[in-house]
Design a protein that fits this description.
The complex is a heterodimer of chains A (210) and B (91). Chain A is an all-alpha fold. Chain A is 78% helix and 0% strand. The relative contact order of chain A is 0.18. Classes of the chains: A mainly alpha (210), B mainly alpha (91). At the A-B interface, α1, α3 and α6 of A face α1, α2 and α3 of B.
């Protein structure tokens, strides 16, 4: 068993401190899930009320780009899991590399998302700006508002995640964050990143695969 | 089995599930389309949570907090859908 940070009050031992760190992180993830839950509920109610309008609006979304983005984010979760494994083994170099790879894949996701937004802007699907909305039925426009709100909020979370991952890769690379003593920090960051991935795993079928 | 092997196997399973959900979306299955998509998404989320998010090796306390997140979020959906799906003119 690799060494962990020596226990300080109020913890009784290092194992309990680690467990408390995980528990606290999961509480935060629960609040994040509920934040997105509200948006998901809006989408669900729309599908119940206006199923044809939502289906038609959803057909304007590119499911292949969305699928590619899903694969990109799943790969970034893999590299993040590898980064945590390296952190536990105390290997700072590989950990840094995996963290940088994770950030790069997250940025790739944002790039593809940005391209999608650019396309949708030119088709008039963005609320408030650009060409007029192409679909006749009003609920379709509301679906697209929800689409931009949900994916925009997700992109914001992803951007913050990328910033945090880059910060950690600098700290680990400079040996400022001692591994494996402080590996629970990297683990907590991993939990956040995986949640952002899980949220997209649900956003994709709910928005793109109607 | 080494931890990295497990992670790679989970990753391959996730990609297969993604391909599956994209493929079945091409078929017209009526009500079963969203049911299938959401089931596959739940399976993917479960794999990510169990292996990538270390629930496999976490104590019961941590697992309960993860389950609580789902329970409280689903309260919103259950309560809302009880209303919306039982209205005579919708759902």
């Amino acid at each position: 068993m690799t060494e962990r940070l020596a226990a300080v009050l109020p913890y009784s031992d290092a194992r309990q401190q680690h467990e408390a760190a995980r528990m606290g992180m999961w509480i935060f993830l629960a609040t994040e899930l509920m934040l997105f839950g509200g948006l998901f509920m809006g989408i669900v109610v729309y599908r119940v009320l206006y199923s044809e309008a939502v289906a038609e609006a959803s057909s304007h979304l590119d499911m292949w780009l969305g699928g590619l983005n899903t694969a990109v984010l799943l790969t970034s979760s893999l590299t993040m899991a590898f980064a945590v494994a390296c952190a536990r083994e105390g290997r700072a170099g590989p950990c840094t590399r995996n963290l940088l790879l994770t950030a790069a894949l997250g940025t790739l996701f944002l790039g593809i998302k940005g391209y999608e937004y650019w396309k949708e802007y030119h088709e008039g699907l963005m609320p408030g700006i650009g060409p007029p909305f192409p679909i006749e039925t009003p609920p379709a426009e509301l679906f697209f508002n929800l689409y931009f709100a949900a994916t925009g909020l997700h992109a914001l979370h992803l951007t913050c995640g990328i910033g945090a991952v880059l910060g950690f890769s600098w700290l680990v690379g400079r040996r400022r964050l001692r591994l494996p003593a402080r590996e629970s920090y990297v683990e907590g960051l991993g939990l956040y990143w995986h949640l952002v991935d899980v949220i997209w795993v649900f956003l994709y079928p709910v928005l793109y695969l109607v | 089995m080494a931890i990295r092997t497990i992670y790679l196997l989970v990753y391959v399973a996730l990609l297969i599930l993604l391909a599956l959900t994209m493929a079945t979306a091409q078929l017209q299955l009526g009500i079963w389309n969203p049911v299938l998509n959401l089931s596959i998404a739940t399976l993917k989320a479960g794999l990510i949570a169990w292996f990538f998010m270390h629930l496999e090796e976490s104590s019961g306390l941590v697992r309960i907090f993860a389950i609580a997140a789902i329970v409280w979020t689903s309260g919103l959906f259950i309560g809302g859908l009880i209303d919306w799906l039982t209205r005579p003119w919708a759902g």
